[in-house]
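Per-record layout

source: Roseisalinus antarcticus
name: Omega-amino acid--pyruvate aminotransferase
length: 439
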Amino acid sequence: MNVQSPNDLNAFWMPFTANRQFKTEPRMFVAADGMYYTTSDGRQVLDGTAGLWCCNAGHKRPKIVEAVQAQVAEMDYAPAFQMGHPKAFELANKLVNMAPEGMEHVFYTNSGSESVETALKIALAYHRAKGDGARSRLVGRERGYHGVNFGGISVGGIVNNRRFFGSLLTGVDHLPHTHLPEQNKFVRGQPEHGAHLADDLERIVALHGAETIAAVIVEPMAGSTGVLLPPKGYLERLREITRKHGILLIFDEVITGFGRLGSSFAAEHFGVTPDIMVTAKGLTNGVIPMGAVMCTAEIHDAFMNGPEHVIELFHGYTYSGNPIAAAAGIATLDTYREEGLFERAAELAPYWEDMLHGLKGLPHVIDIRNMGLIGAIELEPIAGSPTQRAFSAFLAAYDKGLLIRTTGDIIAMSPPLIIEKDEIDRIGETLKDVLTSID
């Protein structure tokens, strides 16, 4: 396939992109199938990142394609305010059935960022509905990524996502991140050291009073900051402290949900159930924008008071539960189940781990981290030019037919769950070539 690139790239202001560099040397995808993208000059590029952590079942999957085509021909849109359509309810039931016990209700959004905003608003409104409106403080974590809306960057902890946008939300504190490279370098899976970092929540409670804190939000495994894994016992300790003080615990599972760790959700993988779960990405395999926030019956039922004709929660989006997105979601979850993709991820995880840790000792590599079908290779930064070395690796990998993602000086990978062992081998060999060729 040889598809001509657009002749004018000026109008599109690209997100999270070095726009000037890209538009000097464009990298255009024009088709995708299975594990591979096709570029505008006809090359095949192995997808080492499942798009943006979202195409967990791979690309152009027949069941999902057919479901979307059928739905858009039957009904393209239906309002979700005071009206409904069957597929939104069918998908919600499927989500509840696969979620950890206790997650009983689903609120639809369009993205991970919107799911985070929704979860934060539900948490605040829940306490007020209970007559506990003094609980208005939120706690996030350093290096956390919770999307790009104001609530998300306020509880998030990635400096460049925050520094340009003013004072953000007030009443927000941050736990320390869990990255302890001196103690946990080159660890396979969960690190041994760092559970004590959860105890910093007790300091925040002592500072402000538990009665002022509404919720704590964390990624069970922090993805976009460079794959930071929870130390053994850390999530359990967070759950214990939040429960003791009546604080809601929110898991941002936008990346970890839908098979990435070899289970439905990280909550299941780690055996820790929060009060609210934030999802998106793999929910529709990246085909149509959609997110979903799941919560307990206790939270949902706190709103179900007063006259029955009155709106209980003044929140929602034009595209909440969109029919085409719901159809894509149903077909995606069916594809995961019918092909056993979560189990497949768990089976491939040790092979994936061995490939990654086989890169130890290569030039510039200062740490390797992994869990499920996620991996990170941390590179030593070039003095005075942070991110340049990883960006060079990104460009070199693309030229060699491999799509990776970089964040800071960290290479992050999360391939579709349909990956084969020979493709894992190819990723390893390509990365060896890249890391030995860049400065």
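summary: The first strand starts at residue 29 and ends at 33. Residues 112-129 form the longest helix (18 residues).
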